[in-house]
Amino acid sequence: MAAPIRLVGRCVQRNSRFMQVCSHRSFGWTPALRQQAAEAHKESTDTIVIPRKKTWSKEAVLEALASTVSRDPTAHPYLFQDDPYLSPRTNPEFKLYSLSQESGRSAAKYFVNNNPKFFTKDFAEPHIPCLMPETVTLLIEEMSEEALKERISLRKVTAAVDMYDQLLQAGTAVSMETTHELLDLICLYCDRDPVQDGGPQAEDTEKSGEEVKRSKSRFRRASDLLRSTWRENGNAERIFNLLPERDTRCYSALIRGMVKHGAYAKAFSMYTDMLNNRVTADVHIFNALMSAAPDVRDKYNERWDLITELLNQMSQQKVQPNLITFNSVLKALRRCGFLAKTQALHTLNEMKAMGIAPSLASFDHVLAVFSKAASSGQGNTDILKEVMSELSGTSFTCQDPDDVLFFSSAMRICLDNKDLEMGYTVQSLVERGENWRFLGDSYQQSVYYGRFFNLLCMMEHIDEVLKWYRRLIPSLYYPKPQGLRDLLQALDTDGRLDLLPTIWKDIRTLGHDNKSDLVEELLTLMARDIHSPEVQEAFAACALDVKSVFGGDRGRLSLEWSNVSLSHITSLLLRANKTQQAWEMLQLFKSKNKVPEEGLLEDFLSACRSGGSPERAVELVQLSAAFCLSATPRLAKQTLAGFDLTEEQRAVLSELEATGEPSD
After folding, report:
1. 238 assigned to some structural domain
2. How many domains is the chain partitioned into structurally?
3. DSSP state letters, 189-202
4. For the chain, which terminal residue's Cβ has fewer other Cβ atoms within 10 angstroms, N or C?
């Protein structure tokens, strides 16, 4: 501490000495300026402001470092950077890696939560509570309301219901707050214990054999696990009927549970019972009923009339709507046909009049409404332009689960209308701040970037397409075969077929070299026209590499030879003067029982003439005769006229010229 004090003292002494020198030397200053400088120095020395201590968050250093690093377009997504050796390079590997990683995470979470005694120490800095083991074992065994609360907090539905029944049988009163929490738990999980991550799935004994078989499937979707059928007269309704007084919270739990699990008509019946008992609804009840309105009415006008009636009842009961209320209305309007277009705009105006800012889900519903209502794509573009002008420069926070659907829907409209400028506008909004998080999961992100890349291939110059190609792949997007076909068409449109060998390397890296239509399209583009010798040499090397994916044992499914692939590879080798390899391909026609094209044989005959190989020319004519081609006499005549042959060879060719059939 002494060293800094001495350093500060020296600085003060030097500063004082400097001012003394300045007071004796004018340096051209006038007396007025010297006096003004002295006063300023006096003020600066008299008023010393000591800054307050700045308190930084524990993540401040990490955030500062992260802000200095931009995304590496050549690297794999951050999700796959735990083990570089296992980083996926193909779309199937991407799916397998994602599922394996999620399965491992669930298994680890299950083990940690069920064995917390092995994870009592926390060395993490900063402390991350969600990564610490959760308490999943019951600690309170005696019968009490505290034990019931513990089972509710641990989401033990069956155990909580049993404890509640034991308390009632013992004559112990349960508080209304605890009863509310119990009803919420039962209705949320549809009277079943939730499936723990990584743990064994509890089978429902009431299911039929077919349902049990489906539940045991390894590929059950998350929506299938969450969406179960509402149990008629189950524990939720039984406990509800046992209550001496039923308030809004009780009705809200049952109505929302019925809507969530498909009992729409029963939810409206419960709402009617609530009104008859003079109980006021809350905003959550109205939100659930509005989302279920299209499922209880068949005609479009009846659906909208029901929604309007619910909105009027909200006003009469003085229930303030929120964002989810209007989003539920907009989502229901997507199923109201011709009424949707007008009413959607009225709903948006009502939102703004009440001071509620629409979320991305609100605009996604509006885009869907206009997409169905518009007779042509132009209306979709107009409404999208208005939406994007309102959202320009905004960083979003998630307010609705459907917010993640907006960007994918917007890019679909851009692709359908071939609006490149609007596509760039949508992409710039994605890149702003952390808006990229609203692209959704890996599947939705792949859909979005697939549409964007397809739009680029159709409408953008090839240089820009290649720039985005290197920027998106593989750090953000694993292209499917259709995306690579779009790229090949873009190269063909702009006359950049010289890049096909490079694209072929990417096709192999991405694992799409086993798609026959994609490989044949690549070969067709390379063999269609004649290019410079340098390009033909590159095409021939690429053709030999393509040859390796046909037949053979590569540890996975290989391609089968076709006339198109055999002809194109042979033609490419001939143009690069690789006669020996071309002859091997020609022999492959015979072994694969494929018939070569006549034009290919004529090209091969020209190559034999240039190379001075009469023996191979005679074999070529005999091969043509073996395939019974109509061009055999013509090829025999050209060979007789263009080559220096022996008498025996001339006799063979003369016979083929006359009959067109090979002799024994």
Report:
1. yes
2. 1
3. TTTSPPPPTTSPPP
4. C
CA dist 353 and 348 (Å) reads 9
Distance CA 659, CA 198 (A): 76
Q: Does residue 240 lie in a domain region?
A: yes
Query: In this predicted structure, what is the pLDDT of residue 71?
Result: 75
The span from the CA of 336 to the CA of 349, in Å, is 19
Dihedrals phi, psi of 447, to nearest 5 degrees: -65, -45
308 and 290 Cβ atoms separated by less than 8 Å: no
481 class by beta-carbon count within 10 Å (0-12 exposed, 13-18 middle, 19+ buried): middle
- Rounded to whole angstroms, how far apart are CA atoms 177 and 175? 5
The 3-state DSSP class for residue 550 equals: strand
Residue at 215 is within a domain: no
- The residues facing 559 across adjacent strands are 550
Structural domain of 167: 135-198+225-279
The separation between the first and the last C-alpha atoms of the chain, rounded to the nearest angstrom, is: 109
| Nearest alpha carbon to residue 656 among 609, 599, 602, 618 | 618
221-253 per-position pLDDT tens digit: 444 444 568 888 889 999 999 998 899 999 999
Residue 233: predicted pLDDT? 87
Alpha helical stretches, state H, 392-480 = 406-417, 420-430, 442-459, 462-472
Q: How many CB atoms lie within 10 A of CB 105?
A: 12
The CA distance from 322 to 324, in Å, is 6
pLDDT at 552: 55
**CB count, 10 Å around CB of 323?**
17
d(CA 250, CA 270): 11
CA–CA gap between residue 323 and residue 400 (Å, rounded): 8
pLDDT of residue 45: 52
Max CA pair span of the chain:
125
DSSP 640: H
Q: Are 376 and 418 in contact (CB under 8 A)?
A: no
313-319, Cβ contacts within 8 angstroms, sequence gap of 24 or more: 313/281, 313/286, 314/281, 314/283, 314/286, 317/280, 317/281, 319/280, 319/281, 319/282, 319/283, 319/286
Are the C-beta atoms of residues 336 and 303 closer than 8 Å to each other?
yes
Contacts of 120 (CB under 8 A, 6+ apart): none
Residues of the chain with pLDDT under 50: 1-30, 33, 37, 200-226, 375-378, 553-555, 663-664
Q: Distance between CA atoms of 379 and 417, rounded to whole angstroms?
A: 10
Q: Write down the pTM of the prediction.
A: 0.78
Q: Count of CB atoms within 10 A of residue 586's CB? A: 22
Distance CA 234, CA 73 (A): 54
Check: CB of residue 441 under 8 Å from CB of residue 42. Answer: no
CA atoms within 13 A on the CB side of 512: 21
User: What is the chain's percent helix, strand, coil content, to nearest 5?
Assistant: 65, 0, 35
For the stretch 481-510, pLDDT in tens is 899 999 999 999 999 999 999 999 999 888
Place of tokens 């390079």: 89
Q: Is residue 501 a part of any domain in this protein?
A: no
CA-based R_g, the chain, Å: 38
In SS3 terms, 119-133 reads as CCCCCCCCCCHHHCC
- Distant-in-sequence, close-in-space partners of 296: CB < 8 Å, separation ≥ 6: 264, 265, 268, 306
Q: Give residue 35's pLDDT.
A: 57
